[in-house]
Amino acid sequence: MQSTGQRVVITGAGSGLGRELALRYAREGARLALADINDDGLKETRQLVADAGGWSFSQRCDVRDFSQLAALAQSCEERFGGVDVLINNAGVASGGMFWDLSLEDWDFQIGINLIGVVKGCKAFMPLLLAQGNGRIINIASMAAHIQTPGMSNYNVAKAGVVALSESLLAELQPLGIKVSVVCPSFFQTNLLDSYHGPDHQSKNDMAKLLESSPISAADVADITYRESEADRFMILPHERGRLALEQKRADPQVIYQEMFKLAARRLQQG
């Protein structure tokens, strides 16, 4: 297989989609910088990358801490001489009705799923600007477009990632830096390992959505790779997600009515 030789950074690479993205790029001959707070997960991903014929180094990194992201960028500059693809993938799950969510729940969710992406972009921006090229891929969610009840802080964080990505798309295009944002629906992964919130019903509902997905994390990684390489900005891996977004754009009230029903069902379940 032809090697792309791309230098790729992936946060949240210790499991789930981050690991599958690492394997997908490894098969294309990329050199990988793998970051996560899970040391054991990083070790496993590095071994899988090596088994796939790829090369990587790993570095523990909490995306809430800008200094750790800046250190990761410095490591990439020293080891790679730059970065071709930055994938801001690290994220956590959460849920609960708005009145049950604490401000700490909001801070935790926004701090990782939104501000963590902001800090990732900020840490690597000097490298990208100095090169005058590169690609940023931000992992958001269909929750940015279709706001399911019982997930308000998650919905807001992911909508923020889309807004950030659209802003960067416009600002960076004249400078030769490309941007994509990925908005999958729920898919088969270990997202619930990071679940944070007061509502066990939300966690149970999310588990059902994860289990019922027609595609896997590996599928999402493959779609992300192919469509970002084709310079597509908005990447929507799930067909049902695409159809729901089309329906919302055509007649938002139809989607709102469905959300009313879901909220009523949640309240009946207690």
From TrEMBL:
It comes from the Bacteria. One of its GO terms (cellular component) is membrane. One of its GO terms (molecular function) is oxidoreductase activity. Keywords: Oxidoreductase. Belongs to the short-chain dehydrogenases/reductases (SDR) family. This is Short-chain dehydrogenase.
